[in-house]
Amino acid sequence: MGADATDRGLRLEGVRIERAGGATLLALDLAVAPGEVVAVMGPSGAGKSTLLAAVMGTLAPPFALRGRVTLDGRDVTAAPPERRGIGILFQDDLLFPHLSVGENLAFGLSRRVRGRAARRAAVEAALAEAGLAGMAGRDPATLSGGERLRAALMRTLLAEPRALLLDEPFSSLDQDRRDRMRRLVFARATARGLPVLMVTHDPADAAAAGGPVVRLGAG
Ligand SMILES: Nc1ncnc2c1ncn2[C@@H]1O[C@H](COP(=O)(O)OP(=O)(O)OP(=O)(O)O)[C@@H](O)[C@H]1O
């Protein structure tokens, strides 16, 4: 749609988040290339979650967004969240408890995949990709915390987002599971060429991502 290769990825251009009354919470310019992971760090209250909400399209009063958010050259600043093509993963897996693991993944699955057999195969392939082969029929409550997070990751990716936001997704895991989950998330995002914006308190997350670090300050 008129976008050239240099527009690819996620861009924040002259972005400012203001509180009602005009005080600025944060201001930044940022480009996240396809397959790149940018870590967002900073003290509590610096505006990390608010920044993700602005990119996702869920920013609410008292905050307002100035500037532009573009994805692969398309201006999505005013688009509703479901039209942005942006996926997000939180610390809590947010799987639906009344659906099986497979039904949870099928819920995320892009409508582009048509037909029962094809949809089932896509869900099975995603489960296998996350080391969860054979778990489609399980109740999410019977999975470990790490397994639930991996299922949530695949549900997000099955929607075929064009960018991925991470809001402290590893902080509930112990060290060993955290390492494995990081590797899985970064590998799957890179394989799909997704720009990734990751909010974290943990310098080891940023180091594992290997990309630039943006520090939001107090003020
Ligand atoms: N709905 C709201 N109404 C008023 N102020 C808010 C609202 N949501 C957040 N804030 C304030 O905006 C600032 C930024 O909040 P935000 O949650 O983005 O910080 P954060 O950097 O993600 O912090 P943490 O690391 O503690 O999660 C904080 O001072 C917070 O109190």
UniProtKB/TrEMBL annotation:
What does the UniProt keyword field contain?
A: ATP-binding, Nucleotide-binding, Transport
Which GO terms fall under molecular function for this chain's record?
ATP binding; ATP hydrolysis activity
Write down the superkingdom of origin.
Bacteria
Q: Residue limits of the ABC transporter domain?
A: 10-219
SUPFAM superfamilies found in the cross-reference section: P-loop containing nucleoside triphosphate hydrolases (SSF52540)
Q: Output the InterPro entries linked to this UniProt entry.
A: AAA+_ATPase, ABC_SmlMolc_Importer, ABC_transporter-like_ATP-bd, P-loop_NTPase
Q: One Pfam family of this protein, by short name?
A: ABC_tran
Write down the SMART domains for this protein, in alphabetical order. Answer: AAA (SM00382)
What Gene3D superfamilies does the database record attribute to this sequence? P-loop containing nucleotide triphosphate hydrolases (3.40.50.300)
**What protein does this entry describe?**
ATP-binding cassette domain-containing protein
Organism encoding this protein: Rhodosalinus sediminis
Instruction: Print the organism lineage.
Output: Bacteria, Pseudomonadati, Pseudomonadota, Alphaproteobacteria, Rhodobacterales
